[in-house]
Design goal:
The complex is a heterodimer. Chain A contains five helices and seven strands; from the N terminus they run ααααβαββββββ. Chain A is elongated and about 80 Å long. The chains are: A alpha/beta, B mainly alpha.
Chain lengths: 140, 478
């Protein structure tokens, strides 16, 4: 039986590893990263995070962003997990405030105005509602 | 060049540790963190790097042959290109991965706007603050860089800097342990381009997660252990605790390995780092989950737990019992430690109340017992991920080969090997105790990131075993 040749085996194993990781640089490290950055720049942050295979709700967040002031308190309700997890990040510096923790007649929370909108001539509070993998807007 | 890189890595590590102490002390005192505290901490870090040198200096090296120098330069160019891609990925857009955006970068932006915990995102229970109780060091580090003029986009350059620090630290450690230029070059490229590190994926350098920071802290702790550098060990263990919630477990594992190794000074350093980290982070954590802890009471209990560990460590140091005996004593002591842990959670009312990320997992003791039947499946996943080239390349088979054919002084190999094995085995714990009902989904979404924390230890071990191997006369490095 031939003697094991550890020196050669170790060198081969390290060589395989180096070839593997270096060979991945053009595609996995470079091309995929550039494609991801371009996808972000093309679609915008809301769609990048929330218009994928698993999550939706980008339109709701984008609407809130374009129709409320940056110091607003945005009420939220429903599931906190899923799409809703991205809402505080995408809406910052606005803050998401639990709709159930705010009295129904309140117009501000912690010194911040609660975001309102008009529908059918009636002014109501904007509530972002988490539905697991999606988000909806309600006026309450 | 290795000496310069090593000095810079130690400066960053000591500077970051100083910054962590300042940040936590100020936040506990409800004082906003001034941006200038970051450069001030790094000046102190540079001074500490000079006045607290490693016990093993970076040795001089014979002038390499032109061929070897060329190989080293080609490798450096490859790493520089990868580093440029990581910097581009980090700076071009906000964090593109889930928790990187929803937790880590959100809090960095909040701190950049107001560097204090006294703001609604952290204090108002009605405000949706995703994982608001998570450690604050990384977000505050980014916030201070942003406030110093880089803006939040430029502040994300912190991530490739952590990657560079990691490589510089390993280069210095391998050099101290006898690896030649050629071997260091191979190890650096092999480690630096680990798929999980450089791919644009969750946990990668530019993902915005804190996993690279945790990897740096653990690798530095391992480097401290293996070079008997007690100051580096203390600083790194402190960083482990304040970087990620699982860092408390990392710190405990380093303490256990230092105890097993019979390195009393290192054991004391690791305990010092762990206690200081716990005293800095736990009061903040508990405050963020609506609990209060008496810091003095916590300190007394932590020191009371540390005393028997140090005394028994002194016994191991003096008597040098066989490893079997050490493990037997350790297992017996684990029972006492468990009692100590319950005593500790009693004072940490917030952990007992199961609030926050730690509470959720500590509440899992019943789940863990019920899920023990899943342990073989979890260990199977661990092995499968370790050997899957798409995550970690071929480091696992390389390590197996190195452990089989290693020669010479095995002490360092044993220390790092034990650290790696215990660390990897500990990764079963979060899956046993997790509230997540879909175990397979939980594994798919986080096991690779959790394993990433230990990759630096694996590559340090590879360097040590290879160098030891050469010392035995195979001629690989001498």
């Amino acid at each position: 039986m031939a003697r094991p040749r550890p020196r050669l085996l170790l060198a081969v194993l390290l060589g395989i590893h180096l070839a593997w990781v270096a060979g991945r640089v053009p595609h996995a490290v470079t091309a995929k990263r550039i494609a991801e950055v371009r996808a972000f720049e093309t679609s915008g942050d809301c769609a990048f995070y929330l218009d994928g295979e698993h999550l939706s709700g980008a339109d709701a967040v984008a609407w809130v962003r374009s129709n409320t002031t940056t110091d607003a308190a945005i009420l939220f309700d429903g599931d906190r997990k899923g799409s809703m997890e991205f809402a505080p990040f995408l809406l910052f510096p606005r803050l998401l405030v639990d709709a159930n923790a705010v009295p129904s007649g309140a117009t501000e929370h912690g010194g911040r105005p609660i975001a309102h909108a008009e529908r059918d001539g009636r002014r109501a509070r904007i509530v972002l509602v988490g539905r697991g993998t999606s988000l909806e807007l309600e006026l309450r | 060049m290795t000496r310069l890189a090593d000095g810079l890595a130690r400066t960053v590590l000591f500077g970051t540790t100083t910054f962590a102490v300042v940040v936590h002390a100020l936040l506990q005192s409800r004082i906003a963190v001034p941006a200038w505290s970051l450069p001030a901490a790094f000046v102190i870090g540079a001074i500490l790097a000079v006045v607290l040198p490693s016990p093993i200096g970076v040795p001089d090296e014979a002038t390499p042959t032109p061929r070897r120098r060329l190989v080293a330069w080609v490798a450096l160019m490859l790493l520089a290109f990868a580093g440029a891609m990581l910097a581009y990925g980090a700076i071009a857009t906000p964090a593109r991965s889930w928790d990187g955006a929803t937790s880590w970068e959100l809090r960095a932006r909040a701190f950049a706007a107001a560097p204090t915990l006294d703001q609604p995102l952290f204090r108002d229970p009605a405000v949706y603050g995703h994982t608001r109780e998570y450690p604050v060091l990384q977000p505050m580090l980014l916030a201070c860089v942003a406030r110093l003029g880089a803006g939040i986009d430029g502040a994300r350059a912190v991530f490739p800097t952590l990657w560079l620090t990691l490589l510089a630290l390993c280069a210095g450690t391998w050099r101290r342990l006898g690896a030649t230029l050629l071997l260091r070059t191979g190890l650096l490229v092999g480690f630096g381009l680990t798929p999980m590190l450089v791919d644009p994926t969750m946990g990668g350098v530019d993902s915005g997660f804190a996993d690279v920071f945790a990897l740096l802290a653990l690798t530095a702790a391992a480097a401290g252990l293996v070079t008997r550098d007690h100051w580096l060990t203390a600083a790194a263990v402190l960083l482990c605790v304040v970087v990620k919630p699982e860092g408390l477990l990392h710190a405990m594992i380093v303490v256990v390995i230092a105890w097993l190794a019979g390195e009393l000074r290192i054991l004391c350093a690791a305990l010092l780092g762990a206690i200081a980290g716990a005293l800095l982070w736990l009061p903040l954590y508990l405050g963020l989950v609506g609990q209060h802890v008496d810091v003095a009471d916590l300190a007394v209990r932590l020191v009371a737990i540390a005393v028997p560990i140090v005394v028994s460590g002194a016994w191991v140091r003096a008597r040098r019992p066989r490893y079997g005996m050490r493990i037997a004593v350790l297992v017996t002591g684990a029972g006492v430690a468990l009692a100590g842990a319950y005593w500790l959670t009693e004072v940490l009312g917030g952990l007992g109340s199961r609030a926050g990320v730690l509470g959720v997992y500590l509440d899992g003791d019943m789940r863990a017992r019920a899920r023990l039947v899943e342990l073989p499946r979890i260990l199977g996943w661990l092995a499968a991920y370790a050997f899957a080239p798409k995550y970690f390349g071929f480091i696992a088979p390389l390590l197996v080969a190195l452990m089989l054919w290693g020669r010479g002084d095995r002490h360092r190999g044993r220390v790092l090997g034990a650290l790696l094995l215990v660390g990897l085995a500990s990764l079963a714990l979060p899956f046993l105790a997790s509230p997540e009902t879909d175990l397979a989904h939980h594994v798919r979404s986080s096991l690779d990131r959790l394993m990433l924390h230990w990759v630096g230890v694996a590559w340090l071990l590879a360097g040590v075993r290879w160098s030891d191997h050469a010392v035995a006369g195979t001629g690989l490095t001498r």
